[in-house]
């Protein structure tokens, strides 16, 4: 049947080179090349996420990757210095401060987008 031990996540990007630059250099992740022009992002344990190029890519309207961090404040500060822009929300169920940090409605979290428009987050580990 299905082997959940080998399951992985995947999402598309419109420009694999921009994705490689952003995820590898800006975020500092150790990427590897996957099959047929894809990129592999190692996650916890043996889990991986696969990024694949898609010419008619549409950005996800939900968070595709969450990165647990010790301090959202410090991480937002560091990533902002590297050029990452955090999303600012002012909706009744989703409010952030001017830096893009949400507190009090669940875990402390901040959302940002990759060059393809996919939504990512840094979330304070419990």
Automatic annotation (TrEMBL):
Cited SUPFAM superfamilies: Glyoxalase/Bleomycin resistance protein/Dihydroxybiphenyl dioxygenase
InterPro entries documented for this protein: Glyas_Bleomycin-R_OHBP_Dase (IPR029068), Glyas_Fos-R_dOase_dom (IPR004360), VOC_core (IPR037523)
UniProt keyword list: Lyase
Signal peptide limits: none
Highest taxon of source: Bacteria
VOC domain boundaries: 5-125
UniProt keyword annotation of GTP-binding present: no
GO function term, MF aspect, one: lyase activity
Protein name in the entry: Enzyme related to lactoylglutathione lyase
Organism name: Tunturiibacter gelidiferens
